[in-house]
């Protein structure tokens, strides 16, 4: 197995940081509206970890696809996307079925990596 590229590690740390900040914000919103309990915290942990892991696995797939020809790279990326979507669906089902998780708190963190990537893109654009 190849060594994980430093860019993937750096970006995953950034996504994790943003996910933690947005998770704290989400916890605050649940608290303010009077809907907070331990299931919100556990759901947030489950969804946040799954979202960051999904991002990291995507990065690993991109890294492994770089050395391949276009057809093989496209095939690998498509398979990775399918498997990662299945993983995220299974996590959501666990969040729904197991009563210690608040489903909304499981699913909302799925958006956090996308927000982090958008924030990164805006900050890079401002630097240039």
Please give a structural write-up.
Helices cover 81% and strands 0% of the residues. It has 128 residues and is an all-alpha fold. It has one domain (6-122). The longest helix has 28 residues, at 38-65. The chain is globular.
Question: Top keywords for this entry?
Answer:
single chain; 128 residues; mainly alpha; 5 helices
| Unreliably modeled segments | none
Tertiary shape: globular
Instruction: Tell me the structural class.
Output: mainly alpha
Fraction of residues in helix: over 70%
Please give the count of helices: 5
Could you tell me the mean pLDDT? 96
User: What is Rg?
Assistant: 16 Å
Alpha-carbon distance between the two ends: 35 Å
Q: Any idea how many domains?
A: 1
Please state roughly what percent of the residues sit in beta strands, choosing from under 5%, 5-15%, 15-25%, 25-35%, 35-45% or over 45%: under 5%
Order of helices and strands: HHHHH
